[in-house]
Amino acid sequence: MTKCERLEPQSYCVAVGIDVSFFSEEVRERMEEDMKKNITDRVLAVHPYKLPTEEDYAKKGRCKTHVKDEGSKEKRTTIYATSSDEMIQKLYDHYFGKAKKKAGVLSRKSSGG
């Protein structure tokens, strides 16, 4: 399930044509933190349901949340994840992945996952 959003900052920048070979490791780490924060903020802005806390993941090992799905009988679909980072990535893919794929902004590869 390789997505352009999951690339390391250096790989992402190379994918969009930016040379980052002169950036220090500190700058690259900051870029990665900023990208993760941006993704998290965008998801939290549009996701109407409660998200599990870190304590929930520690207790249960796997947690769930819901997304609206007008096509299903219950009008929502359950998404499971084993960490908060995985949950945020799945929600980001749900809310923003389709629009980017439709617009042809990101190249996508499937890896059977």
What is the terminal-to-terminal distance? Answer: 5 Å
- What number of structural domains do the residues give? 1
Q: What topology, given as strand order, has the largest sheet?
A: 1-2
- Percent of residues in helices comes to 40-55%
The ordered H/E elements are: HHHEEH
Give the oligomer, counting copies of the same chain as homo and different chains as hetero: single chain
User: What's the overall average pLDDT, rounded?
Assistant: 76
Fraction in beta strands? 5-15%
Question: Top keywords for this entry?
Answer:
about 110 residues, two-stranded antiparallel ribbon, globular, mainly alpha, 2 strands
